[in-house]
Amino acid sequence: MKKTALRMLSLLMAITMALTVGLIGASSAAIDDMADTGALNGYMLGYMSWGVKTMGLDVLQEKLEKSGKALPEVIVAVMDTGLNTSNRYLKGRYIDGYNFINQTDDYNDDQYHGTEVCGVIADGTSSNVKVMPLKVMDGNGDGKMQDTAKAIYYALDHGADVINLSLSGDDKNHTYHSLDDAIAEAVSRGVVVIVAAGNQDGDASLRYPANKDNVITITSVNKNNKRGLLANYGSVIDFALPGMNILAPHRSFMLLDSGTSLAAPHAAAAAALLKTWDKSLNQAEIYEIFKQHAVDLGDKGFDTTYGWGMIDMSDFDINATYVRPTEPPVPTEAPTEVPVPTQAPCSYVLGDVDGNGTVNTLDVTYLMRALAMLDTPFSEQELLRGDVDRNGSTGANDVVLIRQYLVRMAVAYPIGEVVTN
Q: How do strand 216-221 and strand 239-242 relate by DSSP bridges?
């Protein structure tokens, strides 16, 4: 068993580095000032990203703002390098976040990537949508998946409706169980999880968490609806959205930038507007709405370059009522609960934690997951004895601990990850 850590890199990094989140285009340029000053959006600046109009987000914004209904606050949590709060274009468009690298309230962006991502979301949404900057990467764009997992739980506890992950690593085998569990928890609570596909000019199924089947994975296109420079592709791609030459808040100025990291927040913005329309929509429902309003860009139907294509919300009817699919009938009788024994039965003492009557490698895996939380090295022989609390004997406390981990009682893994060979 060994502990592992993942290095996450920011958008503007050389392509020769191992784990890139995105890549800047050669035509990037800074813009020191704009004619108008003020927060995004409220139509004061027009729309900085050409993607806002291409996706019909401007039309949907206007429909919502002119509906006469009070627009609820919608929170988009951005796990990234933080936020430059001095950028005047983001004034009033964010709520306080947290720094998971240093465990402080200082989430200032000492790079730029997070500020750009937040800016795209603000640009594509009405003013009721706020970003929550959660700093999980430092000024070099380095971070750990464990911190990202913790940030997701924080976001859930602080009312997030949408989560944007413009980051990736090369963990094709899904060994980062803490982030797997955090994403699963978010989706189970109706939160939409958007992930950038990455910029390795390769198969996005090799990038994590883009390759997870319970997230919405976004690749990028240019203004001609062609795959963005070095944008990843493959069967895990869901949609292809604007990501090339996107104008966004940078440090104290604006910057033209490119990459799937800027395509993903366009989807987050669209999801936030749908949450503005109906807060009860979950990820599966928003995904279906995206599909219904997607413009085919490649081969007919789904394809591995563009997924379902470009989302276009311009014809979305906010006066319609969303009809949910028929739910399967709820059983009239709940399954019988197995009582927690006060004394450890023989099967638990022997390590039969899944209760199938035999001790096998699956039982060992369950126990190792539990031990990962305790950060204590155990031999396989010790594991099979079931002495989880390591007090020298197996007893009722070991049973309680094992059962808690098996039923996944919303425990975020705080120590690290355990990987078996």
A: parallel
Q: Give residue 372's pLDDT.
A: 53
Does residue 173 lie within any of the structural domains? Answer: yes
Alpha carbon distance 397, 196 (integer Å): 43
Q: What average pLDDT does this structure show over 317-342?
A: 65
Closest C-alpha among 145, 229, 216, 63 to residue 416? 145
Structure tokens, 341:
């024994």
Say if CB 169 and CB 145 are below 8 A apart.
yes
Which residue, of 311, 336, 357, is where some domain finishes? 311
The alpha carbon of residue 305 and the mean position of all alpha carbons in its chain are separated, in whole angstroms, by 21
Using DSSP's 3-state secondary structure scheme, residue 62 falls into helix
What is the tally of structural domains in the chain?
2
Q: Could you tell me the two tokens for 91?
A: 């004034």
Cα 81 from Cα 261, distance rounded (Å): 12
Place of tokens 């000032």: 33
User: Whole domain around residue 136: which residue ranges?
Assistant: 30-311
Show which residues are catalytic. Answer: 80, 113, 261
* Helix count and strand count (H, E) for the chain: 11, 12
Q: Is the pLDDT of residue 231 over 60?
A: yes
Q: How far are the Cα atoms of 36, 49, 177, 290, 311 from residue 284, in angstroms, in the given order?
A: 39, 27, 22, 10, 15
**Percent of residues, the chain, with pLDDT higher than 70:** 65
pLDDT computed for residue 341 by the predictor: 44
Confidence band, pLDDT 50/70/90 cuts, at residue 315? very high
Number of C-alpha atoms within 13 angstroms, CB side, residue 146? Answer: 14
Do 251 and 386 sit in the same domain of this protein? no
How far apart, in whole angstroms, are the C-alpha atoms of residue 138 and residue 62?
37
CA 169/CA 333 separation, integer angstroms:
44
Mean pLDDT, residues 309-321: 94
Average pLDDT, the chain: 78
